[in-house]
């Protein structure tokens, strides 16, 4: 490793050593080579292009998909003393002229630009005369036609690659399965020997998935563990986003809504409040997230089923970017499966795309229904692996299995004998022998399957039907009222009667009066917690005076280190991870004063 790279790491970023494959990647790119970097969110991808851009002669050009993400990274770099800027369509003419002057004078280390802006002919022509140290394409999975974040403009970046063929190029992502990785390498002409795959594991994230029982009660119980912390709650619809945010506000939370149907100014204002706040909950559709660089998101909850494992992985990956313990929760029911299936079938996509989307949904349902370690299933989807993690709900409380062969036969027979047109609730009533005006009217109180399922309760039958839908033994009428019918594999099952092991639904959770601290809150000793809170308050004051997010001053992880180490001098503070020279000069006295006051 070059002394220059280590010096930059220490003086600019405040760290003594690289993590994982960072050192190999940085050295590889400084030497003038291309690189594909797959590294989990929070693994330090940004350093892999920022340090080579600073070390090499010229200006680093970074392609980034969202203005908010660019603004975040530029603000953080400037705090660290790096000459960085963003070129985008929102810049006033005067600021744009000054920026181009700085670019032409060689006064920038890093320039961030959206692909749509970069591909404009006038921008490319002006960059022809600029010495570029490298071209880094962040969120590179956006160029995959089969990905959930596909951006057509990313597919056109091969023109930039050809135009600046002698400039080292990098493609970086945290979300790419094996076909997507191959597509990126091929499209950007990066050799497989230049690929660095660091794995997908985020060991600090706890994964939990549960059947929808009472979604609001389940979410409320989950949030009790995260008082005073920031997080994201994902919903499928705009209406549900607004209703959930209003409900949380009624419970006393600082909750905001975010979706694509909002006015741009309102959406941007809410995003800024989330980024600049210390305990804000964003209730959002998937339109929110990729541009969020906030490291202290302590939880992510899905109260509706996401679209794929890639989407789930990326959305949950917005928690715990700073490496501190973080929680996730996903709730789902058979209605979610039906809705996601309908989205696929009613789309205008070609059949090949629909087939792939069905496979992706099946993989997600496999993750939801697994009785094994969630992390193992999640990582195996991306071609990665791990031992049983001990940090997911199924590891903490392994679900019980039972031989569901007879139960499945009863459920399928009941669906058949009622005409394959009734929904889940009615089928369960018939299995339990619930007498009603409806069952009498249709004559279903006299069929052979009426009351044959009394060995299970309503909750268990709902779980059985949900699993049969997930296993594709049962179809849901996508255009009608959710009527259940037997799928072809279900008819094969009735004929062949193979053994079928199903999960026993967990018992309904009793209300807990005592709320445990979150894992992140427990990461700091009680004796240091008062100082940590005082340091957070000082950070917030400084951030507000500069109109920047608090985390660009110092991450929570650095504040914890300060609270534990309690440096009494500049020399001692310099040894705290995350404190570079520029921040030490700018903020050292203020934070040392807070520490001294708590001596």
TrEMBL record:
InterPro entries xref list: DEAD/DEAH_box_helicase_dom, DNA_helicase_ATP-dep_RecQ, DNA_helicase_ATP-dep_RecQ_bac, Helicase_ATP-bd, Helicase_C-like, HRDC-like_sf, HRDC_dom, HRDC_dom_sf
UniProt catalytic activity: Couples ATP hydrolysis with the unwinding of duplex DNA by translocating in the 3'-5' direction
GO biological process, alphabetically ordered: DNA recombination; DNA repair; DNA replication; SOS response
SMART domains (UniProt xref): DEXDc, HELICc, HRDC, RQC
One Pfam family linked to the record: HRDC
Entry-linked CDD domains: DEXHc_RecQ, SF2_C_RecQ
HRDC domain ranges (all copies): 525-599
Alphabetized GO MF terms: 3'-5' DNA helicase activity; ATP binding; DNA binding; four-way junction helicase activity; hydrolase activity; metal ion binding
Domain Helicase C-terminal residues, every copy: 218-362
The EC number(s) this enzyme carries: 5.6.2.4
Cellular component per GO, a single term: replisome
Domain Rhodanese: 215-270
Record-annotated Helicase ATP-binding domain positions: 26-194
UniProt keyword terms in alphabetical order: ATP-binding, DNA damage, DNA recombination, DNA repair, DNA-binding, Helicase, Hydrolase, Isomerase, Metal-binding, Nucleotide-binding, Zinc
Cofactor(s) needed for function: Zn(2+); Mg(2+)
Homology family: Belongs to the helicase family. RecQ subfamily.
Protein name (database record): DNA helicase RecQ
Lineage, broadest ranks: Bacteria, Pseudomonadati, Pseudomonadota, Alphaproteobacteria, Hyphomicrobiales
């Amino acid at each position: 490793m070059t002394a220059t790279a280590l010096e930059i790491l220490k003086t600019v970023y405040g760290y003594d050593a690289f993590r994982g494959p960072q050192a190999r990647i940085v050295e590889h790119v400084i030497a003038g080579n291309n690189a594909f970097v797959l590294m989990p969110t929070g693994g330090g991808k940004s350093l892999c292009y920022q340090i080579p851009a600073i070390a090499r002669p010229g200006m680093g050009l970074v392609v980034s998909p969202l203005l908010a993400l660019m603004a975040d990274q530029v603000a953080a770099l400037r705090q660290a003393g790096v000459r960085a800027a963003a070129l985008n369509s929102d810049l006033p003419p005067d600021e744009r002229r000054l920026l181009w002057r700085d670019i032409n004078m060689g006064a920038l280390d890093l320039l961030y630009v959206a692909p749509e802006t970069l591909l404009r002919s006038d921008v490319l022509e002006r960059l022809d005369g600029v010495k570029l140290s490298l071209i880094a394409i962040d969120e590179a999975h956006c160029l995959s036609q089969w990905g959930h974040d596909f951006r057509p403009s990313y597919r056109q970046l091969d023109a930039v690659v050809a135009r600046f063929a002698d400039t080292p190029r990098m493609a970086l992502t945290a979300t790419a399965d094996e076909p997507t990785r191959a597509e990126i390498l091929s499209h950007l002409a990066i050799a497989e020997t230049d690929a660095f795959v660091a794995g997908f594991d985020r060991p600090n994230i706890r994964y939990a998935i549960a059947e929808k029982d009472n979604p609001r009660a389940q979410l409320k119980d989950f949030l009790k563990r995260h008082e005073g912390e920031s997080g994201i709650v994902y919903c499928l619809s705009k209406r549900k986003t607004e209703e959930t945010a209003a409900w949380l506000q009624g419970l006393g939370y600082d909750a905001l809504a975010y979706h694509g149907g909002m006015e741009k100014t309102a959406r941007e204002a809410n995003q800024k409040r989330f980024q600049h706040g210390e305990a804000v909950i964003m209730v959002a559709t998937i339109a929110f997230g990729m541009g969020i660089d906030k490291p202290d998101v302590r939880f992510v909850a899905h109260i509706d089923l996401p679209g794929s494992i890639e989407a789930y992985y990326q959305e949950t990956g917005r928690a715990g970017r700073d490496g501190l313990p973080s929680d996730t929760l996903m709730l789902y029911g058979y209605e979610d499966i039906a809705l996601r299936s309908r989205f696929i079938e009613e789309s205008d996509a070609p059949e090949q795309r629909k087939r792939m989307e069905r496979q992706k949904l099946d993989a997600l349902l496999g993750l939801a229904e697994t009785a094994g370690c969630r992390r193992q299933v999640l990582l195996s989807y991306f071609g990665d692996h791990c031992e049983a993690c001990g940090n997911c709900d199924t590891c903490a409380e392994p679900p019980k299995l039972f031989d569901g062969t007879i139960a499945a036969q009863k459920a399928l027979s009941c669906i058949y004998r009622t005409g394959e047109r009734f929904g889940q609730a009615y089928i369960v009533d018939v299995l339990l022998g619930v007498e009603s005006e409806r069952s009498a009217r249709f004559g279903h109180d006299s069929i052979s399957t009426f009351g044959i399922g009394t060995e299970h309760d309503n909750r268990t039958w709902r779980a059985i039907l949900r699993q049969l839908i997930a296993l594709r033994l049962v179809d849901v009428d996508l255009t009608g009222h959710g009527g259940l019918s037997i799928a072809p594999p279900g008819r094969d099952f009735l004929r062949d009667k193979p053994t079928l092991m199903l999960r026993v639904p967990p018992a309904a959770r009793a209300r807990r009066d005592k709320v445990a601290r979150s894992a992140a809150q427990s990461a700091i000793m009680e004796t240091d917690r008062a100082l940590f809170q005082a340091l957070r308050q000082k950070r917030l004051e400084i951030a507000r005076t500069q109109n920047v997010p608090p985390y660009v001053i110092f991450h929570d992880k650095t504040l914890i280190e300060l609270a534990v180490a309690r440096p009494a001098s500049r020399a001692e503070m310099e040894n705290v991870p995350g404190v570079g020279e520029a921040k030490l000069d700018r903020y050292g006295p203020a934070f040392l004063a807070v520490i001294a006051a708590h001596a």
